[in-house]
Automatic annotation (TrEMBL):
EC assignment: 1.1.1.60
Gene Ontology MF annotations: 2-hydroxy-3-oxopropionate reductase activity
Name listed for the protein in its UniProt record: 2-hydroxy-3-oxopropionate reductase
Keywords linked to the UniProt accession: NAD, Oxidoreductase
Family of the protein in this entry: Belongs to the HIBADH-related family.
Organism of provenance: Streptomyces luteolus
Name of the top EC class for this enzyme: oxidoreductase
UniProt keyword Oxidoreductase, yes or no: yes
Higher taxonomy: Bacteria, Bacillati, Actinomycetota, Actinomycetes, Kitasatosporales
SUPFAM superfamilies: 6-phosphogluconate dehydrogenase C-terminal domain-like, NAD(P)-binding Rossmann-fold domains
InterPro entries documented for this protein: 3-OH-isobutyrate_DH-rel_CS, 6-PGluconate_DH-like_C_sf, 6PGD_dom2, 6PGDH_NADP-bd, HIBADH-like_NADP-bd, HIBADH-related, NAD(P)-bd_dom_sf, Tartro_sem_red
PANTHER family: 3-HYDROXYISOBUTYRATE DEHYDROGENASE-LIKE 1, MITOCHONDRIAL-RELATED
């Protein structure tokens, strides 16, 4: 069992840290908003007052924060992870950030004697709670093998994708697929509702065939109830689509359908829905279809 310092206890990080405790690991957590450490403490973990306190004695440090600037904020500087983690510690970053940020972090950490894996996840809040996340990992294969028992407390599909930055590249592709799938589902739901068919029956049969997907399974209740409690926020998916766009431009990949999905997510954010679940794309399509009350 490992001693783990866990940085970032939000919608995803909190249940992930709790699952680590349940698996028998010793977990000390830190969050910018201290009240969010409560679920971890209730599960048997500990809360730290500072990042330094959380990571000082840890074998493994895990970060789960929103974006590249937040990763850099918690990793660098005199109060950050790299200055306070012990030499030989393994830093596993589950945040979704740019591949280059992950590469830069690994190179800087090496000077501090800290090993790094970029290990973004997919599965949303439900996957984090259930411990069934998909985890795509970049970094040294030996470090991946060493981290696997810890990762297995949080996920069920755990794959080493290549060197540093590879996990983030695969996550960017994941977010592209999810965005396009969400937009397709939103358009299909709008079409079905306007056609007057039984929406629940229609979605059930569609999800049993080739049109079925994890997105439709996870978001079906959102579509049926038109409720968008955040499991994965529009703001975060908007950030991720920026990563996709930048990375695709760098390698020369053209993403015509992805560009449309990215614009729909940007439009949802512009409508003030940034804190809602990304399935709120349905509301955007409904409004485009003339339903002003959506």
């Amino acid at each position: 069992m490992a001693k783990i310092g866990f940085i970032g206890l939000g919608i995803m990080g909190s249940p992930m840290a709790v699952n680590l405790v349940r698996a028998g690991h010793t977990v000390t957590g830190w969050n910018r908003s201290p009240e969010k450490t409560a679920p971890l403490v209730e599960a048997g973990g500990s809360a730290a007052a500072t990042i330094a306190d959380a990571v000082r004695d840890a074998d493994i440090v895990i970060t789960m924060v929103p974006a590249s600037p937040q990763v850099e904020a918690v990793a660098y500087g005199p109060d950050g992870i790299l200055e306070n983690a012990r030499p030989g510690a393994l830093l596993i970053d589950h945040s979704s950030i740019t591949p280059q940020t992950s590469v830069d972090l690994a190179e800087t950490a090496r000077d501090h004697g800290v090993r790094v894996l970029d290990a973004p996840v997919s599965g949303g809040e439900a996957g984090a709670v259930e411990g069934v996340l998909s985890i795509m990992v970049g970094g040294d294969k030996g470090d991946f093998d060493a981290a696997r028992p810890v990762l297995e407390a949080m996920g069920t599909t755990i794959v080493h994708c290549g060197p540093h930055g590879s996990g983030q590249t695969v996550k960017a592709a994941n977010q592209l697929i999810v965005a396009v799938n969400l937009e397709a589902c939103a358009e299909a739901v709008t079409f079905l509702e306007k056609s007057g068919v039984d929406l629940k029956a229609a979605l059930e049969v569609l999800n049993g065939g080739l049109a079925g997907s994890a997105v439709l399974t996870r978001k079906m209740e959102n579509f049926l109830l038109h409720e968008y409690r955040p499991g994965f926020k529009v703001d975060l998916h908007h950030k991720d689509m920026g990563i996709v766009t930048e990375a695709a431009r760098t390698v020369g990949a053209v993403l015509p359908v992805g560009a449309v999905a990215a614009q729909q997510i940007a439009a949802a954010r512009a409508q003030g829905w940034g804190e809602l679940d990304h399935s709120v794309l349905l509301r955007g399509v409904q409004r485009l279809s003339g339903d002003a009350s959506a």
